[in-house]
Amino acid sequence: MISWSEFATCAPRIAATFARRHAANANLCLLATLRSDGYPRISPIEPRLFEDRLWIVGMPATTKFNDLARDPRFCLHTATTATVPVEGDAKLWGRVRDVRDSDQQQRFAEYLFAEIGLDLRGQAFEHFYAADLTGASTVESGDGHLDITIWKPSEPERVVRKH
């Protein structure tokens, strides 16, 4: 599993765009999962960077987490609201791993409480998903062109310019 700092070293442009758009959207992203009937589901989520990992954690007993328990593949997209992505957008995809480390879950609960005031301290997490990235991309526009940056593990970022 690649850490966030390793990802940012391998894919600095994508990591920076994701971090910027994630922060600009109040941490809100769109999470794509696969439903039990095989159709895609898109749900809002507030992923967090914590202890050098990307975490996909949220309200218990939601269908998106049932989807991930059944099939760990996901795509995470910074919520785009403009037809031309002047500020850029980012997509990260991979698989989640359900981490059952109660000490780490409690450190995360302390972090969330300090960060946003949400008090989950002392509670067990039904699902505590660490994201293992298997690919990523960004789209940025400027001066009549689109720059599409693509990353795959074991490869450097590459930029494709579309006019």
UniProtKB/TrEMBL annotation:
It holds the Pfam family PNPOx_N. GO terms for cellular component: cytosol. The keyword Oxidoreductase applies. Residues 25-111 form the Pyridoxamine 5'-phosphate oxidase N-terminal domain. Keywords: Oxidoreductase. InterPro entries: F420H2_bilvrd_red/Heme_oxyg, Pyridox_Oxase_N, Split_barrel_FMN-bd. The keyword Oxidoreductase applies. It comes from the Bacteria. GO terms for molecular function: coenzyme F420 binding; oxidoreductase activity, acting on the CH-CH group of donors. This is Pyridoxamine 5'-phosphate oxidase N-terminal domain-containing protein. The lineage of its organism: Bacteria, Bacillati, Actinomycetota, Actinomycetes, Pseudonocardiales.
